Amino acid sequence: MSKQYFLSLMAVFCLSLVFCLSLASCREDDVVFEPETVPVDKPESPSAHTSVRGFYLLNEGNMGSNKSTLDYYDCETGEYLRNIFAAANPSVPKELGDVGNDVRIYGGKLYAVINCSNKVEVMDRYTARRLGQIDIPNCRYIRFHEGYAYVSSYAGPVELNPSYEQLGYVAKVDTATFQVLDRCLVGFQPDELEIVGNTIYVANSGGYMFPNYESTVSVIDVPSFTETRRIEVARNLHRLRADKRGNLWVSSRGDYYAQPSRLYRIDLETETLADSLDIAVSNFFLDGDSLYLYSVEWSYVSMSNEITYGIVDVARREIITRNFITDGTERLIRIPYGIMVHPRTKDIYITDARNYVSPGTLYCFDKAGKQKWNVRTGDIPAHFAFLED
Amino acid sequence: MFFVRTFCAGLLLASPVVSFAQSKLDSLQHLEEVTVVANRYLEVIPSQKLSGEKLEALGSFSVADAIRYFSGVQIKDYGGIGGLKTVDIRSMGTNHMGVFYDGVQLGNAQNGQIDLGKFSLDNIEEISLYNGQKSEIFQPAKDFGSAGTIYLRTRRPQFADGKPANLKAAFRAGSFDLANPSVLWEQKIGENLSSSFSAEYIYSSGKYPFRYRKVFQDGTVAWDTTAVRKNGDIHSLRLEGGLHGFSDDGKWNAKAYFYDSEKGIPGAIVNNVWKRSQRQWDRNFFLQGSFQKRLSGELEALANLKYANDWMRYLNPDTTLMYIDNTFRQQELYASFVGKYSILPRWDVSLSADYQWNILDASLQDFVYPRRNTALTAAATAFEWKRLKVQASLLATFVFEDVTRIQHGAGDAQPGRQSGKADDKREYTPAAFLSWQPFGEAKYLSPLRLRAFYKQIFRMPTFNDLYYTDVGNIALRPEYTTQYNLGFQYAGDWNRGLIARLDVQADAYYNEVTDKIIAAPKGNGQYRWMMMNLGYVEIRGIDVSARIDWALPYGVRLHTSLNYTFQKAQDFSDPSDNDPRAGTWGGLIAYIPRHNGSAVASLRWRAWDMNYSFIYVGERWHNSSNIRENYEQPWYTHDLTMGKTFRFMKLKGKISAEVNNVLNQYYDVVLNYPMPGRNYKLILKIEI
What we know:
The structure holds two protein chains of two kinds. Chain A is mainly beta. Chain A has a single domain (33-287, 323-388), classed as YVTN repeat-like/Quinoprotein amine dehydrogenase (Methylamine Dehydrogenase, Chain H, 7 Propeller), CATH 2.130.10. Chain A is built from two helices and 29 strands. Chain A has helices at 3-23, 85-88, and strands spanning 36-39, 52-59, 69-74, 79-82, 100-106, 109-114, 119-124, 130-135, 139-145, 148-153, 169-174, 180-185, 190-196, 199-204, 216-221, 226-232, 237-242, 247-252, 262-267, 272-277, 283-287, 290-299, 304-313, 318-321, 336-341, 348-352, 359-365, 371-379, 381-388. Chain A is globular, with a radius of gyration of 24 Å. Chain A starts with a helix and ends with a strand. Chain B has two domains: 8-38 and 172-223 and 231-266, no CATH class; 39-154 and 295-679, TonB-dependent receptor, beta-barrel domain (Maltoporin, Chain A, Beta Barrel), CATH 2.40.170.20. In chain B, 6% of the residues lie in helices and 56% in strands. Chain B has a 22-stranded antiparallel β-barrel. A five-stranded mixed β-sheet of chain B has the order 1-6-7-4-5. A two-stranded antiparallel ribbon of chain B has the order 2-3. Chain B is globular, with a radius of gyration of 26 Å. Chain B starts with a helix and ends with a strand. Chains A and B meet through helix 1, strand 22 and strand 28 of A and helix 1, strand 11, strand 12, strand 25 and strand 28 of B.
């Protein structure tokens, strides 16, 4: 066999390789996403200008997708900026992270709690440029008090005991150094927290303990940073918000079986459960004396989610409406997931998480409950933070 | 392109070594094993096969790796030796794929997923893939019961004259700290009876470097991170024993299979989390037997029997997350009886009856311990009339389930929970296959065959779909697929010019998946889901494949094959989500590319062989909303294998080396699950 022959065969081999390569040369570098700017509303007239510049919207992204993204709505221009974090922080590997769970502004900083990335991302409040991160495993919600951030976390101390059940904690964080200074153990899987005076109230869920959910609110004394007592409320607590009349409004998820979700009122004077309102609550937003809420309840009768958009008057402690959307838009919303009310215009913002894996939608309603506009968001749009002057 | 040039030069440099080696081996040319398969029914149904040396030449490690070379197939691969690998045929979903091991279906009543990464190619002789069903009517009812079917056939003992036993041993080692010894022992017991035993152990640390990077519009690097994949280790042991018997008018076999593994689940790579600690243990055991006999000139019978016991433990020891330690045990009993009767020499009918029993036990809160009884009956016929061949079948499936629910407190009056069990199911599903040879004995055109098929089939909701605590939904209906296929095949000896044999096939198809079972958001609270029959998918596609055996001078043999699939698999589940740019309605479903294909070239010359294979998967989106955030880059890998057989005393051996992903492409098949870059393997096989 001649050497030329073998060589030519090899050449054919190589040629086919080159051919395949040229055919397939379409893999490209992944490019950092620039924000997409979508005009959604008329620019604000100077007379209508309020101290509210706009708001951030944190999209959770489904677990494991690393698709938590940050959007921004500019009230002055009426433009919606989708996915701003990557362009503001192009050198951060794997961007914002996995499952955003809370977003807040305190002082000059914007804090995004990224649950499955075990961190709180700290950014500049105007530019969303990264300033640093606070490492807290399984972090859930954040609130602030006198220069400190308080973050609830499902992750208790790690112990090598298979039957060990981990208590959650509240972390005390220095907002200047981003260091965790102290931890205060609370109940199992604590969710929202609210700070009134020198007291932190924490809603314990016990979400990992099914069917033995937690049913208490932990009370933490800020100066000593210790849990002083528990207030018995109902199973699987989620959110709490203090009004200016000395009440703490607490929502429960219920146990998904016999006990439904409900809204409870704690009298802060006596720190006891005062009463409850017969309305389910998935999420709420307190504006003055109006508690705007929605609820999603699964019904095995209709085999569908039953959704309510309600307003509770916290002064009179009664339900004013069970559907504040007045133009039929509620029929378009699949799974409401976030709610906020503009403090001046009283516009109502509701997000729709659709099927949890596709992009969601942000709806804006005027105070009469009529849709003004809607815009596509990231996956699972959920949490808001107003940017004020 | 620089790399390509240097790479070619490398190949050319290698050639003098080859020609030097030839002189020593002239007298030791080994005998090629040639298997001739008698094609009594020429296949009516589109099928693809990999067997013998073509399969071996690919250098694939697992069954899943080899199946990638078939057209119309998508693999979901989570990366590494131990990573989950599942197959999806023509985009209908992995649960519609039936996988048969030596003629009996591998089951997983819990989640319907068969991890093809578990099956090594070490003792597999042939892999065949059928769209619709196998081109055969003399088969159990279950063989009619999937939208697409993969048959894995293990080696059947064959003994050279006067040889009482075959002994083979192999050792593979390479990247990811792979160590993989295996042995095969085949013993002739009598004239018509033989046994086989095979054992294999796999260890891999699963460590490999991966890289993610992003650039600015102008191409400068924004960030670039390289890390090592962790917690992807695996230890696994497979033991298999079988008896094979023959008689003048029949054959039988019995086999026992045992698989035991422990592995890490490497998990998704997300911001700030680069390592996970979840683990999984599997223990699978089954016993199966098959008995086939010709009772008279017209009547043949086949009986199959199986018992399977599968145990799985999942542990999440990461206490920053929810601590989970769950075990699952599934058992399956299966019996089948088939009879085939020849009414006329060219007209057969068959009737089969199968019964299957499944039970699942799990250490889950409020678990309902489901039991499922499935009875299947299939009636089928095949006939030939002139140049027309027809097969048709009707499958009746009856499913009855039973559960045990634990009562919480007083009575059943709990609005937040389903009670009872899934309704009994009675489903009747037809299939019809047609093949026509239009040109008879006409020169050149006689090997041309046109074919068409229609098939309707369903998959049952799995135990997880129906009963998983909080997520399951007993109201689920079966998920249906309907397939229409039209195609041709031109296959035959060519013997003109350099081409010895040619096989060209093309099929166009339209599939619908209706009542697709998907997870839908449920009620109040995060990440609560409910399984619902909400999905509807339409799939339009074309599969093309061309295989050529080349007859080259000087005894050089070259085999090339090309496969290409075009698909448009669209999600039409939610008409309200119809934004033309971002809506899911009409969008391409998750992970199904428009274009994918493969090319293989295997060269053999005397004791040497060399294989080059290329796989291409085009751009995809990981969600039916086909926007930039959901975009997945195309990926393609080039694999090279070089081997040489040798003889030493009475030993016959082969040593080969593989370089996979030669261009070191870093890619994800599944979002945030990085795949290995360039990796190597060295394989030594010895035979007595």
